[in-house]
Structures are given as C-alpha cells and as structure tokens.
Specification:
Shape of chain A: globular
Largest sheet of chain A: 7 strands, mixed
Number of helices of chain A: 16
Helix content of chain B: 25-40%
Helix content of chain A: 40-55%
Number of helices of chain B: 8
Radius of gyration of chain A: 23 Å
Strand order of the largest sheet of chain A: 11-12-13-10-9-14-15
Distance between the termini of chain A: 61 Å
Low-confidence stretches of chain B: 340-351
Oligomer: heterodimer
Number of strands of chain B: 14
Structural class of chain B: alpha/beta
C-alpha cells in the first residue's frame, strides 16, 4: 500500500520542516474546517466514525492489513497489535458514541448546527418555558495535539474527539511514533477526503521551539500527553488565550482479593492479569506495574505469581512480545540481575520467573508490598498484601498519580473497594483484564473527555 | 589477612606486566578463591549452579550485577579488616554501592590504575602540569575516582594544589574556578586536565559566562570520565569534546575518555589505540553480551558490558555492568547507561 502525500508526516524522512510550513499548514486547516467541517452535524461524525471503526475491525480493510503487515515498525508483534487495534475500535460504536455525547453534552444544543445532540435530534424549542434546554456548546476552532509515543490509542482518540467537536486538528507525534496515527488519519481521508483535509499529522523530536511556537501561535486548544517536565515546558510556551489540557505521567496496578482465589476461578483471574500485562506490551499508562494479591486465599500470592509466569509463557507462544530496543532490553536484563541476586539471598521474600534466552516476560514476586515501577515490556511485579488498606499505604508514593486499578474480587465486595479507591484518588476502577480497554466515556485523568474541550454558551430566559 | 588472597594479589601484580595468555588460568583460580572467601558470591554462584568444579572458562563464571554492591557486602575481606570503602557517586540512588578495601587491595588498585593510566594517558613522552577538577582526597575519602587521581598525582610528583575542586554548600562537587583558571593559565608546560564530564560542564559554563577562551600549551591533554549523575546538564559526548577543545584550545584528538566504576580496580580508555575504541588492560577482559540472551554479541552489535577484572582480588572479579556498548573487536564503543530507574508510561516517550 502506498500512502499518498496528504500529511507532513508522509514526506520522506530527509524533508525538513520549517516554521513557515507549519504556519501555512495551520491556516490551510482552519480554512478547510470553515469550508468542510464547521457546519457538519455531530450525528454525521458519529455515523462516519462508527462506520470507519467497523471497517478497521474487518480483516480485509486495506488500512488494517497494511498496519498489521508493518507491525514490526510499530514495536509490537502482529498479534499484539491486532488485539490492541481490535480492542480500541470495538469501542467505537454508535451506542457508545451516543452514551459519550449524553454524558458530556447532555441536553445542550450544538451551536454550529442548532441541534440537540443527546440522541433525540430535536430542534431547539423556542420561547418561554424552555430554559432547561437553553445551553449551547461549540468546539474549539483549532486543536493541537502533542502525542506521546508508546501506544497509538491516545493520539487516535484525540483525533476522534476533535472530529466530534468539529475542530481543525494538528497532531504532532513523538519521533518514530507517527505510523499508526498517520494510517488512521489516512483512513479518515479515504472515507471522507474533506474531513481528511481538516487534519494534519507531523512528526518531530519534541523541543523544536521554532516549529512548536509556530504551531502554538495558531492554536485555540492544545492537548498534550507527556512527563510533567514536558507538560510544564509546553504550558510555558503557550499564548495566554490558548486552553491547555495536559495529561501527565500516570501509573496503574491490579488488586486481587484473596477470597476470589480458589480452584478454576484462579486460572481465570490469572488469565485476566496476563491480558493486562500483554496488552500493548504494558506500555500504556493504564497498564499495571504491580498486581497486588491479597493473602488468605487458597492460592497464595506467591503461587499466583508462578501461575502468572506460566500464563505469560504460554501467551508468548501465541502473542509474542516482539523485539524491543537494546536500551529497553538492557533495562530488563539489569533489573532481572538484581532480583536474581536478591532471590539467591532471600528466597523467602523474593522470587522470580522469566523467559529463557530472551527478555520476553518476567514475573517478580516480592513480599515487600511497596509499590514498584516496572520496566514494562511484560515485566510484572506480584506483591502480597493483607488487605486494601495495606495496599494503599504501600502505594502512597504514587498517590495522585494512579490512573487505573484493575480489580478481581467477589461482586458484592467491589462497590466498597471502589469507594475506597476513589476516596484515595484513583481515577478509574475496572475489572482486571480490562485495564487497557477503557470505554469511550472514560474520563482521562478524571477529566471529561469532550466537556473539557468545548465552550458553553448559557442562554437565560425570563421565566 | 588472608594469606592465600594476598599471595594471589602479588601474582596478579606481576601478571599486570605480562601478556594475557595466563588470563584464563588466573581468572579460574581467582574465581575459586572468591567462591571460597566471599560468602555472598558463593551463595549467588551456588544458586546458579556454577562452581569452581564445573566452570572451565572465565566467561562461564557467575557475573555479579554492579547494582548488587548496593545490597550485599561483596567482599573477601572480613569486616574487621576493612580499612577503606569506596561508594558509588550517584546522587539519585537510595543506597550507594560499597566496595570494601584493605591495604593489599588498595595497593593492587593503585598498581592497576597507574599502569593503565600511564600507558593510555601519559604516553612515552609525558611531562605535564597536572590539574584535577575534583576535591582533595581528604575531603573525598570514599571516592574511588579521587583515590585514582591522588595515585596519579603522587606518581607524577605533582603538588597537592593540582586538585582544584571543592564541595559546594549542598555537598556536591564543584570547582574552585580561581584556582582552576590560575593553574590553566600558568606556565608553558603542557597541561594534563583530569575530571568528570559534569566537572567539565561546570568549567565550560564558567569559561563561557566570562567569555574566556584559553589556549593550553601544545601537547596538553584532557581526560574525561563519563557520567553526569544529575550534577549538571548532560551533553552528548561529541558536543562536550568539541567544547572542551574549543574553550581550552587543544585539538579534539587530545581529549581522552576513561571508563571506570567504583566496583572495579581497572579502567578502560579510548586512547591507547589508534582506533579510539575503548580497551581494558590485559588483566581485565571485557565482553559485550546481549541483554536478551546473555551471550556475547557479534561484531558491531550492541549489548551490556561485562568485565572480569583480575585486579578485583578481594571483592568480586566478574562484574556485570548496566552500561551499553557496541562491540568493536576486543574493544567497544561506549553508549552509556540504559535508563533503568526511569518509569516509562505514556509520558516518558515524548522526546
């Protein structure tokens, strides 16, 4: 498949970008938006996106085939990429879009089309007595997204939200990470060229001030994913009028209640934990660093770790991790070496299991419950805790930085666990096994996905 | 003190002047001694099932991760007989590495480091004014690098004022710029300037701020040893060397790199050979191993550096580092430390 030169990221690698090119691209985007996008209805966007997602799920869809053929370029094995894409696009149904719009925009009216968008499709009632419906929303004219590089979902999701708000969009990808978002943008272009003309995708190594300043000068709203330092640096460069939505570094973990660990049930939980470790090779903020296992179950935390190791070994056969960089591999090898020596000296509190002859997967069991950052790429800690209270104390160092907690517990116990985790500050609680599959309505870092993008007009009438 | 180890140290001392045909035999003998006298190493070796009975080549012995020096007392010297300890210098680590020493082990360290330094840095015609960008030894008793600099200073019979470093109020290494500038500007004899990468950054920043471009006498040299340890902004090596050459008025070829660590007693240099790859001396053998398989990588491939240092008689000779390098024949090109402790979720991949 030959991708046409629609986007800056399609240019050959030797092409150098100039601030002028960026400014011109921004102006073109805004012009195109005015002409082709601003007056489209939200419903038409939903229809298009749901259809596009359906296509991406189809094994014959050329863009999907091309993505999978080139899986090696993405840093994932074909099987891992396939599962990741399927789980992403599976969420993009009309029903889920409807739920998202109801959640985010409720009964408000789309200012650009005059339509109510909570699914009823009614015109705005006029006159007295309609105060309940007297709100309008409109999206920013021009959104700039600064994407992080490890997994494509956040960048693709930003583009989707930007289409829903009918914004012109410029996605700046981290170096070496534009392939999948670019392919997704091409598939939009292919589905509706006029929409595609309201998107721009480019790739450069972060920190190129002259390019970024040219970009920020035109933006109405900037979304960015990155380290706290990256976000601070971007925030510092933005003109005051620009809205900034920064998504900082977050970590996630799993919790398995002891009473759930019996018989065949434990195998299901182990399998769910493996799903979360294997998904996107654990590289997303929603992937677990640690699975906390409560003591007192028939299956001990240590045995759980061993079962998880067996499961990861079997996953490796069907859904291999794939090659990683020498740096990533060295990080795993070095971390393993330390645990190997610890395990030799205190086998009662440290154990380790690992793939032979590769760094494909690693399980470290530690009795010490302190939260540990994993070096990822399928390197998972299993730690034992007596209860949730002890877990939260052990994870105090990352309090306020936790995105997702994946739980496996008896159904009746989950609401109370969730309440405690919410009080503690976790922003998402989901079943173990679903950590990397947030619903479309997911509030990234606890913030409304569309609500944060749009601007409201309150319309008050005399009652 | 253990007579067997002391005898062995004396033999290594002699071996330092020999060719490396004796290396494997000495290495296996040392492994057997360390297996016997270093309990933490014995435990590790036992668990790995590698003992003097079943190991036939130095590459087969268990290599201890350098990071293990933070957690275990990896020493053959009984607690009561340790006279010195070197700590790793990282500021962000919770616990530093500890490399214990006694009189005999220090003597061997000094002999080893001097032989390597003499061959690689001084060269046959060396006659230098020494300038050391580090604090004096009595202020930095636990730094193996300062101990090395002090050994060099004594060998060259340079005055103690060769040390132009100090500690700042936060306890970090700093440079006494007045003393440094005075030393750099005095006399016509070629200068030999030793320091860490971060010390050179401090010096270069000072020179740039004051718009000073020096011109050191012909034949002057600089030896830089890696690592920034968050003590200054980090510069790519090529840029650092370019700036050193520019601000000190020497050619880039005269900037020498050293690779060493507090857990070792021997160092690699990129200068003793024409190709400018790093080489350890003959009594310390390095291998570049794949982090995936643990096996030696092919020529031109990237892997982790592991070293068998015969001069580490009293601790552990077989060290697995966390540093990446590209294999170049018997030598290597240094890439540096893999970002190990760094958490890497959505955010750290923006660059």
């Amino acid at each position: 498949m030959n991708l046409p030169n629609y986007f800056l990221a399609d240019l050959p690698p030797e092409a150098t970008l100039s601030p002028l090119m960026i400014s011109e691209a921004c102006l073109t985007l805004k012009r195109n938006r005015e002409q082709y996008l601003a007056n489209r209805s939200l419903q038409s966007m939903v229809t298009l996106l749901a259809k596009l997602a359906e296509n991406w799920m189809d094994s014959e869809f050329p863009f999907r085939k091309f993505a999978l053929e080139r899986a090696a370029d993405t840093g994932f094995s074909r099987a891992t990429l396939q599962r990741g894409l399927d789980n992403f696009f599976r969420q993009l149904t009309r029903e889920n879009f409807r739920a998202l719009i109801a959640q985010e925009l409720g009964d408000a009216t789309d200012a650009s089309t005059g339509r109510l968008e909570a699914g009823q499709g009614n015109r705005l009632p006029h006159g007295r007595g309609s105060a309940l419906n007297s709100r309008f929303w409109r999206g920013p004219e021009f959104q700039v997204h600064i994407g992080a590089g490890n997994i494509p979902n956040p960048a693709m999701m930003s583009l989707i939200f930007g289409l829903l708000t009918r914004s012109a969009q410029f996605l700046k990808c981290a170096s070496g990470s534009s392939f999948l978002p670019r392919l997704f943008a091409h598939s939009i272009y292919d589905a509706d060229a006029k929409l595609g003309m309201c998107l721009e995708i480019a790739e450069w190594r972060g920190g190129k001030a002259e390019l970024e300043n040219a970009l920020f000068a035109e933006a109405d709203c900037v979304t960015a994913t990155g380290s706290d330092e990256t976000l601070d640096s971007i925030r510092g460069k933005l003109p005051g009028r620009v809205r900034f939505l920064g998504y900082g570094h977050r970590v996630s973990f799993g919790f398995v209640a002891g009473e759930n660990l019996f018989g065949s049930h434990s195998s299901k939980i182990v399998s769910a934990a493996a799903d979360d470790v294997v998904a996107w090779n654990q590289l997303g903020c929603l992937s677990p660093h640690v699975i906390y296992v409560q003591t007192g179950g028939i299956v001990s935390p240590e045995l759980f770790a061993q079962m998880l190791a067996d499961e990861l070994a079997s996953r490796e056969r069907n859904e291999p991790r794939g090659e990683i960089s020498a740096e990533e591999s060295a990080a795993i090898a070095s971390r393993r070496a330390i645990y190997e020596i610890r395990a030799a000296h205190s086998p009662e509190s440290t154990r380790h299991w690992r793939s032979e002859g590769s760094t494909a997967w690693t399980v470290i069991f530690e009795a010490d419950p302190r939260f540990q950052l994993s070096c990822l790429n399928r390197f998972i800690y299993v730690k034992s805790v007596p209860d949730l209270k002890a877990l939260l104390e052990s994870a105090d160092a990352v309090r306020g930085k936790v995105s997702t907690v994946g739980i496996a517990a008896p159904e009746e116990a989950i609401p109370e666990l969730a309440a405690k985790l919410a009080h503690w500050g976790a922003t998402r609680i989901c079943p173990l096994g679903q950590m990397q599959n947030p619903p479309l309505t997911w509030r990234h870092d606890g913030r409304p996905p569309l609500g944060d993008l749009v601007v409201w007009t309150d319309f008050e009438v005399e009652l | 003190m253990n007579a067997e180890l002391i005898n062995f140290a004396a033999r290594v001392g002699r071996a330092i002047s020999q060719d490396k045909s004796v290396f494997n035999a000495l290495a296996l003998e040392l492994f057997a001694l360390q297996f016997q006298y270093n309990p933490a190493y014995q435990r590790f070796s036992d668990v790995k099932g590698l003992t003097p009975d079943n190991v036939r080549h130095w590459t087969e012995v268990p290599f201890v991760p350098a990071g293990a020096f933070k957690e275990l007392e990896l020493s053959c010297i009984p607690a009561g007989e340790r006279t010195d300890v070197f700590y790793s210098s990282g500021t962000t680590e919770q616990k530093p590495s500890r490399h214990f020493h006694c009189r005999e082990s220090l003597a061997l360290y000094e002999k080893s480091l001097w032989k390597g330094f003499e061959r690689n840095v001084i060269g046959p015609f060396g006659n230098y004014d020494l300038i050391i960008l580090a604090p004096r030894p009595r202020l930095a008793a636990h730094s193996s690098l300062v101990h090395m600099f002090e050994t060099v200073r004594r060998q060259l019979a340079a005055p103690e004022t060769a040390f132009v470093g100090k500690f700042d109020c936060a306890g970090a290494w700093a440079i006494d710029f007045e003393a440094a500038l005075g030393a750099l500007r005095t006399g016509d004899k070629p200068k030999l300037v030793l320091g860490t990468a971060f010390s050179f950054v401090h010096l270069l920043d000072f020179l740039a701020e004051n718009n000073l471009h020096l011109r050191l006498p012909d034949g002057s040299r600089v030896m830089e040893t890696g690592g920034y340890k968050n003590r200054s902004r980090a510069l790519p090596k090529a840029e650092l060397h370019f700036l050193i050459a520019q601000f000190l008025g020497i050619s880039r070829e005269q900037v020498i790199c050293e690779y060493g660590m507090s857990e070792l007693s021997s160092q690699a240099y990129d200068f003793g050979n024409r190709d400018r790859h790093f080489y350890f001396p003959s009594w310390a053998q390095a291998q570049i191993v794949s982090p995936e398989t643990g096996r030696e990588v092919g020529e031109g491939e990237t892997g982790l550096i592991r070293i068998f240092d015969l001069a580490n008689v009293f601790s552990v000779a077989a060290i697995q580092t966390e540093d990446l390098a590209i294999r170049r024949g018997e030598g290597f090109d240094l890439i540096g430390r893999a970002a190990l402790a760094e958490p890497r979720g959505c955010s750290l991949m923006t660059a």
